[in-house]
Amino acid sequence: MQDLSVTRGTVRFSMRPPTGEGTCPQYVPLAVEAKKIVKALPGVKKVDATLICHVQERAVNEALVMMDTLEKGKARPKGSSRKGRRK
């Protein structure tokens, strides 16, 4: 982990595999789990995590951002519906 910063409930960090392991698939789920674990810590409101120096970094980083979008979708109040959705 590198480039760690914490500001007003927002945690930012980058994960970088050791030299020579930039193709190792184990870092993909590791990046996702790291973000989940940090997000669960008390006082953390937002987590900006990135995987760097990995052959799949673009796809993984897009998925890490998408995690926030999916989480927001789950946070709708009970009984609310999406705008324009037919029942």
Broad structural category:
alpha+beta
The main β sheet shows up as: 3 strands, mixed
Number of structural domains:
1
Task: Report, as a whole number of angstroms, the end-to-end distance.
Answer: 46 Å
The H/E string reads EEHEH
Number of beta strands:
3
**What's the pLDDT, averaged over the residues?**
84
Uncertain parts: none
Q: What fraction of the residues are assigned to beta strands by DSSP?
A: 15-25%
Total helices: the number is 2
Query: What's the shape?
Result: globular
Kindly provide the radius of gyration, computed on alpha-carbon positions and rounded to a whole number of angstroms: 16 Å
Query: Spatial order of the strands in the main sheet?
Result: 1-2-3
Helix content bin: 25-40%
Task: Summarize the structure in words.
- With 87 residues, the chain is α+β, with helices and mostly antiparallel strands.
- It has one domain.
- Helix content is 36%, strand content 21%.
- The chain has a three-stranded mixed beta sheet with strand order 1-2-3.
- A hairpin with a 2-residue loop joins β1 (2-7) and β2 (10-15).
